[in-house]
Amino acid sequence: MKSKILIVDDEKLMRVSLEDKLVKEGYAVACLSNAIEGLKVLQSTNFDAVITDVRLPKIDGIEFLKEIKKLSPDTIVIIMTAYGSIENAVLAMKEGAYDYVTKPFSLEELLIKLRKALKHKDVVAENILLKQQVLSQYGYDNMIGKSDAMKHVFEIINTVSNRDTTILIQGESGTGKELTAGAIHYNSNRRNGPFIKLSCASLNKEILESELFGHEKGSFTGAIKTRRGRFELADGGTIFLDDVDDIPLEMQVKLLRVLQEREFERVGGEETIPVNVRVICATKKDLKKLVQEGRFREDLYYRLHVVTLHLPPLRERKEDIPLLVNYFMKKYAAQQRVVINSISQEALHLLLLYNWPGNIRELENAVEHAVAFCTSGAILSKNLPQNLTQGETSSGIFPVELSTIDSLDLQETLSEAERKLLLWAYQKTNGNQVRMSEILRIPRTTLQNKLVKYNITKTHIPATEQT
């Protein structure tokens, strides 16, 4: 299908020249002399792009641009401006123009900009469609996954979203705890209320208390005016407290009171403020262990532990990696205005073999890096970050060299990698299964099953260590 282009310029010679060039290039072109007629046409006809002069009778090009964006936000607009009027071009870009050309310009220059603009428009549209397809099948918001572990997460979100139950999200850094909290909020009956976030990490008692509950004017040095806290701002919606394990013990009792009684006082204030808020907390630590160590209040733990949602690390859901890679690839290709349609098998194998200590956040950064260095329509292994192309894993135990081979058996390769990791852990701990499960971060029962599967016994410990 031909791309439809609307040209608006009061100079007849410019309209004719542009129309002739664009028609020869295979575009469907309409020409008008003023913006008023242009707006009438745009109300009844969809155009892929509008090329307009800044100087127009009755309505200038900037106002025309604003109205186009109201009528059809996805329509590409390229502004033509006279030499010496760059400020108009800058203003146009701020108002949503894709690009501009300064008169006099060559038709070839304009054509290059138009091609680039239309290609970008196609990439964005494809990315939106892809996201809609992926999310309808696999996830909530930006959460993506088809693994059994993620299906279980989605089931919990679906079940608890419309209930005001307090939720504790557990997971390593980079597993998507904030995204999960957002998915719960925006799929709940509180979705039209505020979603207020606060990271409690490394905030001292005074700062955290003010952040949570606000303060009155003059309550401490620097309190030059009354300030509402996060709980007050979240009234009618949801508050998400990340790194809740970092809340000082003396502050935990105040948080407990809010959870129990749904009221609080600002720092330095006497008025009791009621609040209607849903609380979601997140931690990357074992709160039960912190309770046993006396570093977290037991009563607060049980108040938070009403519904617990565990987010699996990426190394336990590697079947989701191709789906995530595809999503991030399209996202950053659209942002960087490049066309990337695929990833090579070798590059994907490297991503599957890596253990991802930084989880999804690390994977996203790796794909963004690859897109930035990609010079073709496909991501290659050489485009990936250096630690991946050199075959490092999070443990750094063994290299993966793929540059000299054309294909491999993925399951066989993953099994070999797993066997080597088990051997490394067995030798490092002298066969102590408790230590092995700790350094490999897997349950002991899972470890025992894998030791049997790969027939790893004391014969694999060096003789000097067995004596």
Automatic annotation (TrEMBL):
Residues 143-372 form the Sigma-54 factor interaction domain. CDD domains: AAA (cd00009). The keyword Phosphoprotein applies. Residues 4-118 form the Response regulatory domain. The modification 4-aspartylphosphate is found at D53. SUPFAM superfamilies: CheY-like, Homeodomain-like, P-loop containing nucleoside triphosphate hydrolases. PROSITE patterns: RESPONSE_REGULATORY, SIGMA54_INTERACT_3, SIGMA54_INTERACT_4. InterPro entries: AAA+_ATPase, AAA_lid_NorR, CheY-like_superfamily, Homeodomain-like_sf, HTH_Fis, P-loop_NTPase, Sig_transdc_resp-reg_receiver, Sigma_54_int. Keywords: ATP-binding, Nucleotide-binding, Phosphoprotein, Transcription, Transcription regulation. This is Sigma 54 response regulator.
